[in-house]
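User: I'm putting together notes for a lab meeting next week and I want to include a structural view of one of the chains we've been expressing. I don't have a solved structure, so I'd like a prediction I can at least talk through. The sequence is below, exactly as it appears in our construct file.
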Amino acid sequence: MRYLSELIEKAKEKGKKNLVVVGAEDEEAVEAASMAKKEGLIDRTFLVGNLEKIKKLDSLGDFELVDSRDEAESCEKGVKLVSSKKAGILLKGLVKTSTLLKAVLNKDWGLRGSGLLTHLAAVEVPALDKVVFITDGGIVIRPSLEEKVKVINNAVDVLIKLGYKTPKVALICAVETVTPSMPETMEAAIIAKMNQRGEIKGCVIDGPLGLDNALNLRAAEVKGIKSPVAGCADLLVVPDIHSGNFLGKSAIYFASGRIAGIVVGAKVPVVLVSRADTAESKLLSIAMACAVSEGES
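Assistant: Thanks for the context. Below is the predicted structure for the 297-residue chain, given as structure tokens.
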């Protein structure tokens, strides 16, 4: 992919989905839902939240309104709409991420899948000639080696659904050499070896790699790095949530880029971007979720 707008075309190939906006007092989220409907991605849209506030929004369209008293009730009602098959995509509005994920993971009526919930962001910046994916900057705070493997598997599964045949995965660290005082570098080397031995499939992995030599071939050549991933990484795997969060937001605020983001590992994709992100970003995230959704709703 060269541009995030390609996500919209990929989503259209999957057919229309039904959408739930949780915490729909969010003008940008409701506008994104309207844009998604105009693009032909969404059929029915449910807006869950404080009806008094929702009805004041300028972008309010022909949507189905569901009243709630607070964040927790909004999340519960929104998740239940999806778990009851009335909708297939969940969009986070003005609710806390922790409150929404607590509802998603509810054992009785939630959307808990068999694996680990992880976040995947797709970033487009003028300096690069393609979209680059980043994981995990939104859910797993400080992943263990075992969790990093699950993070990679979740992300690779999404990239394959988006049309990548063998995604190139870079394990990002501050340095490119294995350094015992930096455990992330040792874990990166172990994971790369696991991939070489066929224990992690569907992709090519290398690390530790610096951000520069993962994305820029000249940087890799200057540092003498020979790798099938260096200079052409599709997916950047960061060592912790802080670095992933900073990396994604720096693409927007330092580089005038665009971003889309979803949570994977649940029964359906959950659209999760910053509450401060634009309607365009949320539209692209809805498209990303629709493009990888397997359900009919």
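A couple of points you could mention at the meeting. Residues 118-253 form a domain with the Isopropylmalate Dehydrogenase fold (CATH 3.40.718.10). The chain has two domains: 6-113+266-292, 118-253.

User: Perfect, that's what I needed.
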